[in-house]
Design brief:
The protein is α/β, with parallel strands linked by helices and 374 residues long. Helix 9 links the parallel strand 12 and strand 13. Helix 1 packs across helix 12 and helix 6 runs antiparallel to helix 7. It starts with 12 loop residues before the first helix and ends in an 11-residue tail after the last strand.
Amino acid sequence: MQLKYPYIILVKIKDIANALEMFAPLPLQDDFDNAGLQIGLTDAEVAGVLLCLDVTEAVVDEAIASGCNFIVSHHPLIFSPLKRITGSSYVERCVLKALANGIAVYSAHTNLDNAMGGVNFRIAEKLGLKNVRVLVPKKDSLLKLAVYVPTAYADAVRKALFDAGCGNIGNYGSCSYNVTGYGTFKAEEGCNPFCGGIGELHKEEEVRIETIMPSYIKNRVISALLEAHPYEEPAYDIYPLDNSWNNVGSGVIGELPEECDEECFLKTVKEKFAVGCVRHTDMLGRRVKRVALCGGAGASFASAAMAAGADVYITGEARYHDLFNYNGKMLMAVIGHYESEQYTIDIFADIIGERFPALKIVKSGINTNPINYL
């Protein structure tokens, strides 16, 4: 039987937000940030998505003209709480215009910067870097879980933990340590024990499963654990770890396929990112092979780049004295905030397009860079 009308799957704001947050979870954002849904309702249906770096009045007009009721930006429109919305600033005017035209706004900022495969990895890809890894991994973000499971149920509980997001170390998944032993318990009146009788001391052969997880998924993992575990009262421990989380963090470092001289490399950067002016420290007469970078305002990570043996460090913004600190020590290049992050919309397009191939996706054609070069 052939349907008279094609079957249409309606996409909602929350569906796109979930897809973006699977790639770049909101807890990865820095403390100062305000990533996530800025304007709109999560259950609203999406007619089309406009992708951009910044939300300006011109970008909102572009969304209206292109029939898109959802804007996804890299930089949040709203960084600080708004005490009033009177149209006295461009942020207030954007909010008013978006609300008046039923347009939702979502931002993925430092969570996308810090995510594996995020903004800095895309910059590295544009430069052709190989063996790319995080420059400054996040700290104080990992937990260890230890749980005691009857031997016959160990595989099922272990799988539930892995499915919930546990066990990822670098490029390895499903990581755990397991040791067998036995546990003892005595069920009191009112209990419903999985094994053993009321009032009797019971001994059960068990497996202690140890695995690792990012702290932000703790509640999800505990729910999965309780669902899969056969005991009425499972015994488990959670420990904070001092380990660095090498999968996520600030900046990246990698190597060029072939080394080149400094001037040639800087000219390549200028061309690849359409930079009006590359500001840089003194050239040192070295060959460039190892490159570190951080899009946006990443000057604070230059010391980590030098410690990692980078021949050059690239970022979007740096102050006068930031460059002083590395002059004569490491080649440091500043290419502009906008220029360093302009390919963010390609990441959005890949994520949303793969998950919702029939959805209308428009890349903004507006250059929102507030800096001009004479």
